[in-house]
Amino acid sequence: MADQAEKLREMMRQKNDQQDGSPAKKNTDKNSRQTRIITVTSGKGGVGKTNISVNMALAYARLGKKVVVMDADLGLANVNVMLNMIPKFNLYHVIRNQKTMQEIIQQTEYGIRIVAGASGFSKIANLTEEERQNFIEELNTLSDADIIIIDTSAGVSSNVLDFIAAADDAVIVTTPEPTAITDAYGIIKIIATEIDSLNMGLKLVVNRVKTVMEAKKVADRMTTIAGQFLNLKVDYLGFIYDDPAVSQAVLRQRPFMVVDPKCKASQCIQHIVGRMEKSDLRDSGGFGNMIRRLFGRT
Ligand SMILES: Nc1ncnc2c1ncn2[C@@H]1O[C@H](COP(=O)(O)OP(=O)(O)O)[C@@H](O)[C@H]1O
Ligand SMILES: [Mg+2]
């Protein structure tokens, strides 16, 4: 097993060296040198993860970033539905070596690319050695992206934790509802206990708020509890107003950032991405390391 892992690492190192060697990719700007991987997650379902993933992706695209949204919600093809796209193939076909990542990745009319989730595979740990290798090789082809946003399912499956462990930032989404807050705290606690050497940025977004104060109260409570009881630093990234433009856009299967770029929710998303951009991207060793972390947990 250790040998296998070492072989994969060696393969990744070679890939990275090749990529770093190409003059077109050389970039001295610290923050844009590597792919930033952001997971969007929550304890409770229906709190706005998919909307936040897709619309954050659009806000990043407007800043000139190359963005990929990966749907890791293995149950429902949320991202596709939200963008009115029907994927023929998904990650499952990549893992089974039936398709390449470049064949399944879909360009959207909004300037972002999406990768459809796989409802057929349950756990990265259950992949055969060959399937893992396919997956690793194919994930590598996404390293030209500046930002990869992974929309996860609610709650904690092993896959969700795998993706969180591999990411640079985990954005935890809650609403002010007491059940959503309790579940968000639950997932933070699991992240704290299940993922060793947690050195990612844990970030909180409070969605569907009526007032700035309401959001601040929720955020204060959560960040304080996480600090006191879990000794974990959770940064309050921002809030999003409860805004009818969101559900209207969902019904039209278009992102609210496109349907109504000036609506309250769109402005909030832009603030959130602005704050993300200001927050440090720890030097995580680049894309190869992300993949190592993704498979290191299995
Ligand atoms: N800021 C918001 N304002 C109004 N409605 C919202 C907002 N965020 C989410 N919603 C509603 O909640 C529903 C679920 O959002 P979604 O992004 O699919 O959640 P999740 O991915 O967490 O399950 C949306 O279809 C929308 O109707
Ligand atoms: Mg969703």
TrEMBL record:
BP terms from Gene Ontology: negative regulation of cell division
MF annotations from Gene Ontology: ATP binding; ATP hydrolysis activity
Keywords in alphabetical order: ATP-binding, Nucleotide-binding
CDD domains (alphabetical): FlhG-like
Cellular component terms (Gene Ontology): cytoplasmic side of plasma membrane; cytosol
Disordered: region residues: 1-35
UniProt keyword ATP-binding present: yes
InterPro entries: AAA_dom, FlhG, MinD_FleN, P-loop_NTPase, ParA/MinD_ATPase
Domain of life the protein comes from: Bacteria
Gene3D superfamilies in the record: P-loop containing nucleotide triphosphate hydrolases
Annotated organism of origin: Breznakiella homolactica
Domain AAA: 36-203
The protein's name: MinD/ParA family protein
Annotated Basic and acidic residues bias: 1-18
